[in-house]
Amino acid sequence: MATRLQFENNCEVGVFSKLTNAYCLVAIGGSENFYSAFESELADVIPIVKTSIGGTRIIGRLCAGNKNGLLVPHTTTDQELQHLRNSLPDQVVVQRIEERLSALGNCIACNDHVALAHTDLDKETEEIIADVLGVEVFRQTIAGNILVGSYCALSNRGGIVHPHTSVEDLDELSTLLQVPLVAGTVNRGSEVIGAGMTVNDWTSFCGSDTTATELSVIDSIFKLREAQPSSIVDEMRKSLIDTYV
Amino acid sequence: MSSAMEQDTGMFKVQQTIGSVLCCKCGVPMPPNAANMCVNCLRSEVDITEGLQKSIQIFYCPECGCYLQPPKTWIKCQWESKELLTFCIKRLKNLNKVKLKNAEFVWTEPHSKRIKVKLTVQAEVLNGAVLEQSYPVEYTVRDNLCESCSRFQANPDQWVASVQLRQHVSHRRTFFYLEQLILRHDAASRAIRIQQVDQGIDFFFGNKSHANGFVEFLRKVVPIEYRQDQQLVSHDVKSSLYNYKYTYSVKICPVCREDLICLPSKVASGLGNLGPLVVCTKVSDNITLLDPRTLRCAFLDARQYWRSGFRSALTSRQLVKYFVFEVEAPVGEATVGGQKYALSYVQIARESDIGKMFYVQTHLGHILKAGDQALGYDIYGANVNDDEMEKYRLRVKNGLPEAILIKKCYDEQRERKKGKPRAFTTKKLPMEMDESRGGRGVDPEKMENEYEEFLRDLEENPELRFNISLYKNKDYQESETASMTDGEGAPTVPIEELLADLELSEEEEEEGDDEDEMDE
């Protein structure tokens, strides 16, 4: 189910949190309402970790991860790294990478099987991504934008991309990612979907400006209505080659 | 989202089909835009016409059909015209904040005193989306007489400046010619009223500068002397504003074409001893005097003329018909002012007294032949009431010339053409006749004859036609017998000189009136 919330009166929820199938990261310094929203959905299922990265609160945009691992930029301090390693489950590999483009959340969009990467990413980084996250990496653009992490939100069951994406691009991406995709908006017409919402296989969180129409689009593309946490986390599901009509 | 996907594998570019997203507010599928909202939702969110004027009052003068542009200008516009639209849009404030795309009138009942204009404006909203919106503006029209109309209403005969044009001669030829000149140059277009009086015409203007302009025009075409006077009408003590009525009293010099003049000795010696008997051949802004004996010409401009102010001894009224019996070979030739003259001796006799033959010199040797008729002044038999002439007669030894021929007479040829309409017509100024003098006003039959003579003059003299517009007479047909004339026919205006008249419906009526007056 999609939930609407705000972080300190700001609707860009995807900036201050990162949600995967195995864990959830949230920024520190916000009100308890923010955490309780997450906890009410996720408390017994996956750990919710409060952290900062490089002293900043924009953790959603700085790190990229899935159930297999987490990649953090070189600006992460040792304490933060250690804190993460301690708090997250053991099967999640936390790796700090030296990369010129340090906002990994903006440059990498991934689910548990496949990832889209910024076209200018280092070859090494690409290899690390493939290794740590266990995914297949594709360098792509979305609607002509190279910041793939910002302009799309991806889960194992579906994805939303920038509204100006053409039909041909949509088909191409869908074929690559092997999930149904839709071009849509979040937070009352905002195109920056990756920053506006965060999603995993059974739940998602959006900014409170999100209209009912957008919410219904999110619910249907990510198939959140019938989803239960347990059935997803344990299984490996084969995604369908499908385009959402 | 459309499922029609054509991956066009062209060489360089893949075809991009724009998909559709759902409007974030209402959920209708729409192509994506900067706001990602459908137009209706966007319109409901943002109103770009906020703060723009939607109703305004304008003032209209019902007499002259003008609209007021404050503070003082009145602009004449037709109902629902382009000028009115421009005027209405100009009256709106704040319109520079948005971009105006289109404006048009919405129909309103003319009696409702409302004008409705639908404006389409464009402005940028939210994050770069440009929104276009139409909205109506209502103008309430209020009636308010403009200043000139209210002044006119108070006193319809109100004029500010008048030009009283006079020429103290017994004929009206100059005024006919002037009338045509004025029409051609549109000099009296701003006159409120034109009135014909006994020896002249009065023009009334609403503005002193208009009257001044008219007097300047007259100065260029005839030799005039004028004086200007003013009369105080009202006086605003507080702001020291004085309202005057201005009157220009303009006198045209009484010397006309074809007049015989005996110059006073001072003037004659001033012009290089020009023989005191001279013929006036042309009057424009200066007077051309031709000495028929020496074929010398002199020009007098207005100032020079009015310094001496001599009058003609004999005018064209006193022209007498002569028969020409014999023309000798010219003894001298000259071309003066574009006109050729040849000096030769002729034998002539008056029509009324053929027995008495005269042997005189004439300057018309180039056009006279034996058997012609000519018009000239009969000095032998005339009783001339002119001091200068008397003085000259006493001074000169051989006596005055017995006759001076002025022009060739085409009466015989005209007989053949009698009853047929002319090839051209002329227009007339809208003049009022002077009723106030009772019977002493202008005699209409005399006017007719004079006008007929004026037209004959036009036909005979191409240089007179130079500044005048003549219009084609629609009823005139080339007669078949015109080609088979024995000898020369009466001179006519060649068809190339005639202008085709404007075929406006009101003009046609005027033309009809002209023709009725013109046909013999």
Automatic annotation (TrEMBL), chain A:
SUPFAM superfamilies (UniProt xref): Pentein
GO CC terms in record: cytoplasm; nucleolus
One GO MF term: translation initiation factor activity
UniProt keyword Cytoplasm present: yes
Gene3D superfamilies: L-arginine/glycine Amidinotransferase, Chain A (3.75.10.10)
Compartments it resides in: Cytoplasm; Nucleus, Nucleolus
SMART domains recorded: eIF6 (SM00654)
Keywords: Cytoplasm, Initiation factor, Nucleus, Protein biosynthesis, Ribosome biogenesis
GO biological process: cytosolic ribosome assembly; ribosomal large subunit biogenesis
Pfam families documented for this protein: eIF-6
Signal peptide positions on this chain: none
Domain of life the protein comes from: Eukaryota
Main localization (coarse): cytoplasm
Cross-referenced CDD domains: IF6 (cd00527)
Transmembrane segments: none
Family, similarity comment: Belongs to the eIF-6 family.
Role noted for this protein: Binds to the 60S ribosomal subunit and prevents its association with the 40S ribosomal subunit to form the 80S initiation complex in the cytoplasm. May also be involved in ribosome biogenesis.
Subunit note: Monomer. Associates with the 60S ribosomal subunit.
Protein name: Eukaryotic translation initiation factor 6
Gene: LOC108849080
Automatic annotation (TrEMBL), chain B:
GO cellular component, one term: nucleus
Domain of life the protein comes from: Eukaryota
Claim: Hydrolase is one of the keywords in the record: no
Domain 60S ribosomal export protein NMD3 OB-fold positions: 319-408
The keyword Protein transport is annotated on this UniProt entry: yes
Disordered: annotated span: 499-520
Residue span, Nmd3 N-terminal domain: 23-252
A UniProt-annotated Pfam family: OB_NMD3
Main location, first listed in the record: cytoplasm
Gene Ontology terms: biological process: protein transport; ribosomal large subunit export from nucleus
Location of the 60S ribosomal export protein NMD3 SH3 domain: 255-298
Subcellular location field: Cytoplasm; Nucleus
Molecular function GO labels: ribosomal large subunit binding
Keywords: Cytoplasm, Nucleus, Protein transport, Transport
Role this protein plays: Acts as an adapter for the XPO1/CRM1-mediated export of the 60S ribosomal subunit.
Family per similarity comment: Belongs to the NMD3 family.
Protein known as: 60S ribosomal export protein NMD3
Organism of derivation: Raphanus sativus
Lineage of source species: Eukaryota, Viridiplantae, Streptophyta, Embryophyta, Tracheophyta
